[in-house]
C-alpha cells in the first residue's frame, strides 16, 4: 500500500488551522510580556473590548477594568520600585481547539514567579491553568474570556 498525498484543499485548511493556533499562542505570550513590563494600557492587543478576566481577586469585565486591574496588580507587586518585572508569567502546555472559523477554546499552564523575594526563598507565587475562549476580530485573534484556575498553593490545606 502506498501513501497518497492529501488533496491540496486539505493541506490549505490544515495550514490555516496551524497559523490560527500559532496566532492564538502568541496572544498568551504577548499578554505575559505586557503584564510583566507594566504595559497594561496596551491590553487591547490581547483582549476583545468586552473581554472578561477572572483571577484570584475577582472578575474584570471590559478593557477599562482589565487595564486598571492589571496596572493595580503591577503596582502592588512592584515592592522594590524597580519598574520592571516584579513578576514573571511563564506559560506552557498550550492546547487550542478551533471551534469554528472565528472561535476557539484553549488552556495553558501558568508558572507565576515573583522577583522581590530573597534568594533563599522559592520564587513561586502560584501555579495555575488559564482556561480561555478566543475570537477572531477584524485585526486578528483576541482573548474573549480567561479564567485562572490556581492549582498551587492550596489555601484550604
From TrEMBL:
**SUPFAM superfamilies, per this entry?**
NTF2-like
Tell me which residues make up the SnoaL-like domain. Answer: 17-146
This chain belongs to the protein called Nuclear transport factor 2 family protein
Amino acid at each position: 500500500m502506498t501513501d497518497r498525498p492529501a488533496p491540496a484543499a486539505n493541506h490549505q485548511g490544515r495550514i490555516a488551522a496551524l497559523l490560527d493556533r500559532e496566532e492564538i499562542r502568541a496572544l498568551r505570550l504577548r499578554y505575559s510580556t505586557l503584564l510583566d513590563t507594566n504595559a497594561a494600557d496596551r491590553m487591547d492587543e490581547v483582549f476583545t473590548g468586552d473581554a472578561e478576566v477572572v483571577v484570584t481577586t475577582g472578575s474584570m469585565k471590559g478593557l477599562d477594568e482589565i487595564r486598571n486591574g492589571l496596572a493595580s496588580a503591577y503596582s502592588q507587586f512592584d515592592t522594590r520600585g524597580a519598574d520592571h518585572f516584579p513578576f514573571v508569567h511563564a506559560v506552557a502546555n498550550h492546547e487550542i481547539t478551533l471551534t469554528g472559523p472565528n472561535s476557539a477554546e484553549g488552556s495553558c499552564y501558568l508558572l507565576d514567579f515573583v522577583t522581590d523575594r530573597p534568594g533563599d526563598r522559592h520564587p513561586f507565587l502560584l501555579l495555575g491553568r488559564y482556561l480561555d475562549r478566543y475570537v477572531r476580530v477584524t485585526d486578528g485573534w483576541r482573548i474573549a474570556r480567561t479564567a485562572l484556575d490556581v492549582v498551587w498553593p492550596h489555601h484550604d490545606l
